[in-house]
Amino acid sequence: MRGIEIKTPEQIERMRAAGLVVAKTLELLRDQVRPGVTTAELDAVATEHIRDLGATPSFLGYHGFPASICASVNAEVVHGIPGSRVLAEGDVISMDCGAIVDGWHGDAAITVPVGTVRPEVADLLRATEEALWQGLAAARLGGRVGDISHGVESHVRGRGDYGICEDYVGHGIGSAMHQPPNVPNVGRPGRGPKLVRGLALAVEPMITLGSGETDVLDDDWTVVTRDGSWAAHYEHTFTLTDEGAWVLTALDGGEARLAELGVPYGGH
User: Fold this and answer.
1) What is the C-alpha separation between 268 and 253, in angstroms, rounded?
2) What is the DSSP code string of 32-49?
3) Closest CA to 58 of 69, 73, 49
4) DSSP notation for 78-102
5) Whether the Cβ atoms of residue 36 and residue 87 lie closer than 8 Å to each other
């Protein structure tokens, strides 16, 4: 547990406030995705909305990143830089968003189809989002980070011949956006740091239609699949309370999806 930040209930409440900003921003962006819109236009919408809600964009200026969201299209996995790219019918776009409220972070991502996508692409998006929730559902106080990793991996392996981008992982989050511990998307249950009250984690499977091998483009940010296969990315920030899981970046705290999976809800 060395270096892992444990939050007080009051600090978790601030993270919930940041998480709600992220959730509302991603829902707004989902509604803005359509053929003909540019990724820069989506970024401008996000920047304005985050600031209108009294928060600060986490990503803008982070290690020099020039935007408030990561916008990754088709074979781009993560960390795509918004710009002049125009979305077309049949594309998919992954949008990763972070916000800071009173010094505390929220971080989440969604992948959105642009119009109608190929059936295998729609299945990829569904499998990736389900894998995220299976990872969250596997978390229990006293358990281990590896339980989450195993939950993600088991679902992906059971859904088809997908690639898991193992070089990119989830992470601890709190007073900084990226903190220990790492949360891999593959692993064995019962391994890794213990899941305790006050620990907050961002879980984020990145899954492809082909290989999980990736490269980074010359912009030093954009991660793409090596084989050109399309990718999906979903992410939530969550914590565990005595009552159960609380998804800080879901509008309802994750209550509905957790109930579908038979998992106790720990928010309020």
Assistant:
1) 8
2) H--TT-BHHHHHHHHHHH
3) 69
4) E-PPPSSPBP-TT-EEEEEEEEEET
5) yes
Q: What are phi and psi of 262, to 5 degrees?
A: 75, 30
**8 Å CB contact between 152 and 199:** no
Per-residue model confidence as pLDDT tens digits over 201-230: 999 999 999 999 999 999 999 999 999 999
Parallel, antiparallel, or unpaired: how do β-strands 236-240 and 200-203 relate?
A: antiparallel
- In sequence order, the 6+-apart residues with CB closer than 8 A to the CB of 94 are 70, 71, 72, 73, 76, 77, 78, 80, 109, 110, 111, 112, 231, 232, 233
DSSP-assigned letter for residue 221: S
Task: Write the pLDDT tens digit of every residue in 45-99.
Answer: 999 999 999 999 999 999 999 999 999 999 999 999 999 999 999 999 999 999 9
As given in the structure block, the two tokens for residue 87 are: 């979305």
Q: How far is CA 41 from CA 1, 50, 58, 86, 180, in A?
A: 41, 14, 18, 10, 33
pTM above 0.70, yes or no: yes
